[in-house]
Amino acid sequence: MDLSNLKPAKGSTKGRKRIARGQGSGYGGTSTRGHKGAKSRSGFSQKIGFEGGQMPLYRRVPKFGFKNINRVEYRGINIDVLQKLADDKKVTSIDLETLIENGLASKKDLVKILGRGELKAKLEVKAHAFSKSAIAAIEKQGGVATKI
Question: What is the DSSP pairing of strand 93-94 with strand 144-147?
Answer without folding.
Answer: unpaired
